[in-house]
Amino acid sequence: MTIPVFRLPIGVECSSNKGKVHVSGARGFVDFNSVSNLHRKGNMVIFLPYLSSYESSIFTQAIFGVVLGYTIELKLKGIGYRVRQKDKKLIFSLGYSRPVVLNIPKAVSVKFDKRTFSLMSANLGILQNFATTIRSFRFPDLYKGGGVLYANEIIVCKEGKKS
């Protein structure tokens, strides 16, 4: 059986303490829980006992995140749909009687364009969870194609009622 060894890129620091693994780099840091202990020699990292496939994928996502970062781009499609940032909150106007207010997680940064906005983070799990929460307030409509969409998402609209 081969021993799974991870090679860290230049500029990435990795440590473990009391069941928590901390990975930090140029784009930020990622923490996750693990029952394994980290043993490091130079830029080589070994976890004992070995990581499960789930923990191994989280560790590789953390390394990619702190080196390159992750970005999810969302687009608002519909009449009067808007988003703005106030302090550490996103305020959405999505056609409801009151605006939808969401707190931005600490690990996520937001960048606005005209009709799109980008969510950026080193932690993929937090980023996907936040993007799904935003989308849940106004899923894409199958008849008109409006709502909160991913930037590269294509909605195939259904045909309306025939009379």
TrEMBL record:
<dbReference type="GO" id="GO:1990904">
    <property type="term" value="C:ribonucleoprotein complex"/>
</dbReference>
<keyword id="KW-0687">Ribonucleoprotein</keyword>
<dbReference type="GO" id="GO:0005840">
    <property type="term" value="C:ribosome"/>
</dbReference>
<comment type="similarity">
    <text>Belongs to the universal ribosomal protein uL6 family.</text>
</comment>
<protein>
    <submittedName>
        <fullName>Ribosomal protein L6</fullName>
    </submittedName>
</protein>
<dbReference type="InterPro" id="IPR019906">
    <property type="entry name" value="Ribosomal_uL6_bac-type"/>
</dbReference>
<keyword id="KW-0496">Mitochondrion</keyword>
<dbReference type="InterPro" id="IPR000702">
    <property type="entry name" value="Ribosomal_uL6-like"/>
</dbReference>
<dbReference type="GO" id="GO:0019843">
    <property type="term" value="F:rRNA binding"/>
</dbReference>
<dbReference type="GO" id="GO:0002181">
    <property type="term" value="P:cytoplasmic translation"/>
</dbReference>
<dbReference type="GO" id="GO:0003735">
    <property type="term" value="F:structural constituent of ribosome"/>
</dbReference>
<dbReference type="Pfam" id="PF00347">
    <property type="entry name" value="Ribosomal_L6"/>
</dbReference>
<dbReference type="InterPro" id="IPR020040">
    <property type="entry name" value="Ribosomal_uL6_a/b-dom"/>
</dbReference>
<dbReference type="InterPro" id="IPR036789">
    <property type="entry name" value="Ribosomal_uL6-like_a/b-dom_sf"/>
</dbReference>
<feature type="domain" description="Large ribosomal subunit protein uL6 alpha-beta">
    <location>
        <begin position="78"/>
        <end position="150"/>
    </location>
</feature>
<keyword id="KW-0689">Ribosomal protein</keyword>
